[in-house]
Amino acid sequence: MTSRQTTRGTGSSPLRALARYVIETAWLRPRTRSLVAAVLGASAVVVAVSCSSQQASTTSSAPGKIGSTALDDARLPPACQQGPATPRVIATLGQWRDITEQLAAGCVQVEAILDRNTGDPHDFEPTPAQVEALRDASVIILNGLGYDEWARKAIDTFTTKPVVIDLGEVVGLRPGANPHLWYSPRYLRQAAGAISGELSRLVPLASSHFDAAHTTFERSMQRYDEI
Question: Is 131 in contact with 60 (CB distance < 8 Å)?
């Protein structure tokens, strides 16, 4: 299949990752019907954004313009000022890039190798440029569970290993489990905690900045506690 370049984030709230989950599982949970109605308009936006993201580019997310936690660059802590040495975090999938952008809140460069609706990640073959992007990353976020094994194989060839967050391992699942972790609010929260913690280790002087962004994320997830 055709390989695609790293893609930049479009900015979103957790609703972007959860809209399809809520709609697809509502028939199992009668109590969620009113929530489905509430998010129906937002889910239409999700579909529109997903469809428009078919074309990928080799660009990163713009600093200070990140979803519900967007900040002007001037408001970022000194440790977060953008420049050539800005840490680079690469997620294999656009779903985890979206979450990471919110948690980073403009403090690091966040990218994805695969965006939404760009084919089956199982069969994806990265280009040499994409492998180099992974090699240059400070942190790589894998979905795990065999969903993005191509990235794991690339990382295994690197002499200097980047920090790798395997989200399947974070949530305690084993290979063979359903790899679509972003449909579960519980798994999203576990993943967010691991990503936020690694961001604080990556830029220790900005740990309070990341803590604030994580708190904002957690508050936005509270509406899904009873799903």
Answer: no
Nearest to 113 by CA among 58, 152, 53: 58
Q: How far apart are CA 154 and CA 136, in angstroms?
A: 12
| pLDDT at residue 169 tops 90 | yes
Cα 26 to Cα 21: distance, rounded to the nearest angstrom = 8
pTM, to two decimals: 0.71
Pairwise CA distance, residues 141 & 154, whole Å? 13
90-106 per-position pLDDT tens digit: 999 999 999 999 999 99
Phi, psi of 193 (to 5 degrees): -65, -40
Q: Report CA 177 to chain centroid distance, whole Å.
A: 20
Supply φ then ψ for residue 108, to 5 degrees.
-135, 165
Alpha-carbon gap, residue 135 to 162, rounded angstroms:
7
Given the DSSP bridges, would you call strands 139-142 and 88-93 parallel, antiparallel or unpaired? parallel
The H or E element that residue 92 is part of is strand 88-93
- For 174-186, the pLDDT digits (tens) are 989 999 999 999 9
Query: Using an 8 Å Cβ cutoff, are 96 and 143 in contact?
Result: yes
Residues with Cβ within 8 Å of 9's Cβ and at least 6 positions away in sequence, in order, are 61, 66, 67, 94, 97, 98, 101, 110, 112
List Cα–Cα distances, 80 to 37, 77, 86, 165, 192, in angstroms.
39, 5, 8, 21, 19
